[in-house]
């Protein structure tokens, strides 16, 4: 056919236009590759034969194929030959090929240095321009250093065409070799007096900007030139129509924008220089037409300059008003940059930005997600005590209709705004509950404990809150945070719900069966998370002390979940059954209302030692006993584990009875045996307590049920954390909390700085015999890479003799598919941990 006939007749003499026609005629990529391969083979043959007749044409075709994405590196040396030619057409293609095919990473580019130098001294301005363009495009630091003198000489020529290209080449030279900027200092000052502002003056301003950004000395020097720059931009703004420089109805907007950027750099942190600019910035802001896109670009740069320099307050208000007009523009890009700029100004000019609040709120309804995100962030910045009610309502309406990727940030922002500016606790509670109802699955993890703390602190609103939450729970049980808070409130204040005495809302008659039916529905729902079921089970258990007629029903529900597949839920049920069967006389005291915790203590702003200790004392419950094992078998298991740790000793080990913690993994049970380990080599016998039971840590069901564990995470004493282990990218740190004189709580945190995830992580620890140790369940077994997460694990130390604390730890994990095990000793605990 015609296509393949065209391929056959093609050769090195084929013109570029013919090659383009044949390539475009290809119907498939395979046909196009056939044409390219055939042509490349012909070009290679021509290059090998040294035929210079069609060299220029062949390089031009090669550059076209390079732009299509095909390899053309074999034409680099031919470009150098064309550059060395005396014909202008050859030089033009040669320099174009050098800019496309060569860069400073290839040694071949150094071969054209001499050719560029000769062409810079050529008498024809077009050839000088080609050499300057090539040097400014791909010149390396060595080339710029060798040819800087020629470039500086061309900057002083009278020919405007050469000077504007030399100015851009000087910019590239300053970027590559900053120490050469002094060479262009005097020439750049002379260029500011150039009348041809279409090219030369623009290049001069770019050169000065580059020098000022890279050298404080140059910045100080060019501050003396501010009046001259002000005069130039004033002529541009105030002069009449100039057909040579008008772009979209504006007089040289590119030069105006570049001068404004330079003024922004020169006026930064300099009051005297900024004062010189104030008048001209006001003139630019008031005399520029905002109906044209070029005018908007100038106004935007003017606003940025006013924001950056030490401008007058009236000028900053003018800048905010310009951005306010941008918010009403039809172009979304202009609205976006206006929101971005207002977000930067809101901290320094809050009142001025506040005047445009209604326009910002209108942007929340924009169709573009980027505009809505910036409008949401700016709206949160504008919230204060005076407008918190109205602005929060607008944000809640936005939360209801926004895309899922914006809901998380919006909900968090509403929480923070409500916490900071809430006019009343009732309004605060209502706002948080509305957010949980609409976007419960997108809120932060601390939303539940924070709301629980807020509700518990508002004693006069307990009846109102529990009734509102009960009503919300009847309508929707799919929002996990809302269900958790509602379950907690029903468990704490169930008697207020059943009494129906609430003046704030219309009373609702609720029976005991209604409440239990609802909580059982939560327990059985497939939408409930394990944590949510734990809240519901705990609420049912707490109701056993608040109702009178359905105790047997509660006992039955609790016993059913004693065989649940979920370990956490099973543990709670077993412990609750123990309260019913063995410690029923203590049930009312254990399940009474949680005491009010001061939020300043939970936030780490106060000393939480006394409160932590008091709550710990309240939680001293007998442990759930298990059938004891053979002591001889326990001793043998302990010795076997000590052999693994390399710390065994022929001396016998005396086992101290410890409490059984359901949450402790198998490794933790073995490490309880290591609680009697004396790493000094001897094993001193320790008399067990009178009841043969170690002190019991707070029961998980007690604090988890009340959702106040978060408070204890913040009760950090004045003990500094330490680094216990730091090897192969795995970092293990210890933070401490003195619960009592003899009880120390340690939080182990493990992070991974490598690029691969650590899996199957197991942490084991052993202490001397005179100290008792108990490991809690870890938060997980995998540590994300690049410090994107951490594993935490609680360690309880009972040191009745207050001896110096020493610990030997062993870590076992998998990394890059390899099993790793390592052992180290920690002996640099702070004195406050044992004194």
From TrEMBL:
Residues 717-830 form the GAE domain. Gene3D superfamilies: 2.60.40.1230, Leucine-rich Repeat Variant (1.25.10.10). It is a peripheral membrane protein. The keyword DNA-binding does not apply. Its main location: membrane. Keywords: Cytoplasmic vesicle, Golgi apparatus, Membrane, Protein transport, Transport. It is found in: Cytoplasmic vesicle membrane; Endomembrane system; Golgi apparatus. It comes from the Eukaryota. GO terms for cellular component: AP-1 adaptor complex. The keyword Protein transport applies. One of its GO terms (biological process) is axis elongation. Pfam families: Adaptin_N, Alpha_adaptinC2. InterPro entries: Adaptor_Complx_Large_Subunit, AP1_complex_gsu, ARM-like, ARM-type_fold, Clathrin/coatomer_adapt-like_N, Clathrin_a/b/g-adaptin_app_Ig, Clathrin_app_Ig-like_sf, GAE_dom. Belongs to the adaptor complexes large subunit family. This is AP-1 complex subunit gamma. It comes from Latimeria chalumnae.
